[in-house]
Every structure is written in C-alpha cells, then in structure tokens.
Amino acid sequence: MEKNSLYLPTYLKALSVMVFIIVLVFFLIVGKSLLIPFFLSAFFAVLFTPLSNWLESKRFPRVLSTLISMLAMITFVAGLIIFIFSTIANFQHDFQDVSGKIDNYVGEIDSWIYNSFGFKAEIAEKANGEYLLSLLSQNTDTITNFALGAVGSLSGILLIVVFMFFLLLYRDHFVNVILKIYRDSDAELVESRIVKLRKLLINYIVGVVKVMGILIILNLIAFTSLGIKHAIFFAVIGAILNIIPYVGPFIGALLPMAYSFLTKDSLFYPIAVIVCYQIIQFIEGNILTPKIVGGNVNLNPFITILGLLIGASIWGVAGMILIIPVMALLRQIFEWNEDTKPFAILLGEEKSNEKELKLKNED
What we know:
This protein is mainly alpha-helical. It is 81% helix and 0% strand. It is globular. The two termini are 49 Å apart. The model is unreliable at 138-143 and 353-359 (pLDDT under 50).
C-alpha cells in the first residue's frame, strides 16, 4: 500500500523554510555559550580521531587512547598559545624607535604630495607618532580578548576539553544511535552515508592541517629571506588565519607588512612581503588546496562569503572558522534527497556541463 505524501503549495514550502531558518538562527544565538565549545570540540575530535584509531590498532584501550589524544590536543593548543603571546610581549621592544620612523615616513609623504600636486596636506602635523605607538602598546591586551572571544570564555575552554573527551570515547555509540533513529530505512545505506560524512569531514580537516603546515614552511622561507624579525610567528599566524577564506589571508598579509613597515628602514620590505605573500597564496589556491583538500568543500565563492558574514555575526571568530565545514556537510546531505537537491546546487560550485548548457542557450 502506498503512503500518502502531504502536498504543500510552493509558497508554504518557502514560508516553512524561512521559519526554520529564523528558529535555527535564534537557537544558535541563544545557545552560543554551549554550542561554540561543542562544535569546536567536534572539530578537534575529528582532527585527533586518526591518532585515537591508530592507538587502538596497537591494542590501546578506548579510554586510554582518548586520554592520550586529548592530552595531545591540550599540549598542542597550549604550546601554540604560549608561543603566540610570548612573541607578542616582545613586540613592545621592537617599537621603541617607531615614532621617529612614522614621522619621517609622513614627512616624506607630505613632501611628495607638495612636489607632485603643489598641495600642502600637513599630514605630519596631524599625525602623532607617539600617540600611534601608545595605541599599539595599549591594544596588545585586546588580542587576549580576541582569542577568548573565539571560544566564549575560560569556562568554554574547559567545555571544549570535556566535550572532546566524550565525543572521542563514544564515537561508535553515536553512530549506533543514528542507526536506531533511522531503523525503518536501509541500515547499510544509512551507515554508508554516515561513513561518507565522517570521511568528508576528516579529509577536509586533515587536508587543511597539511596545507597549513606547508604554508608555515613557505611563509618562513619568505620572511626569513627578507630578514623579517619574528618570522616563525608571522608564518604560523598567516597559516592559521588561512583557515578563514578571503578574510584570513588578507589579515595574514597585513600583519607582517605593517610590522616591516614600522621596523624596517625602507619601503622595499613591506612591498616585498606583499609580493611574496601573493605568490604563496597563488600556490595555495591553485596547487595545494585543490590537490590536498580536493573537492571536500566545493562551495561557490558567493555562498562562502555570505556564510562567513553570517557566521561572524552569530558566533564571531568561531563562526567564521566552523561555517565552511558545516556548509560542506549540508551540501552533501542535501544531495541525497531530491527535494533538497536545489539547495545543494545553490551551495555548490557551477559545474562544467551547466556552463556549457548556458553557453548553448546564449548562442
């Protein structure tokens, strides 16, 4: 006997989607303090799942492999944070003679404007190097607030550790729960789709980490060859920021450029930093990411930028980091149902056959 499906007019379907989006956004905003640590812990759990699986293949108990993976994550993150903040603390010593350099640069700009256009801009009188230096020094504390803003609070950091432990410990149990929920469906099909989603997420995160490692090496070579101080710091920060599409690479290039502008005696260095960074980004965008990360994301640029803006407005920095893998998972889930395939097409990039069909219609 065939099941009667409920028919809804198109406008009611659109209305139901809008209501669902409004409720979802409200839920994400209200549950921000718990959801951000949960999703970040899921990110780390997926990242350290290969390590946990390898330990279990060596006959380590599940609890012990989970504890080792969790300690590895804590050691890695804590070491990274200590390295970043210890380097930032040394920046104040590098900015001792910056005010005089700023005044010289501004004076040269004033002279060039006057000689070229016969106009006295008097930027040197309006710009105060000492004020800019004090502004840089006073706002170093905001970096701490920026880092804490990514997870919400110190309690959020503790929740990340706790959530990661249980997500690794009960990862097979969660799969069985989903199979029980969809017990009326084909069990093998449901399990294969869960495995496919897990592989997609693991391949994306591991691929991103590999790309970050290569970018650290390339950035380090470029900054060291230019004689930029704290080259390791800028190489690591640039690679980490590369996780955030479009916005991250821009900030990653801006930091070493501004530092070289303030600490070097020639404008050659900030210009050379930008040139080197653009070359590295070209290699990353056209060689590294397509080869290593592959088609795991496959989101079109417009949706990516829109997603970054929505993620930043709801969850801040954490939202910008998490929105890309979440949208990649949604695109894959939408492809499995004929009713939601249009949303998968909306999220994905335009395929070559679609472009050829468009060109034929234009002709």
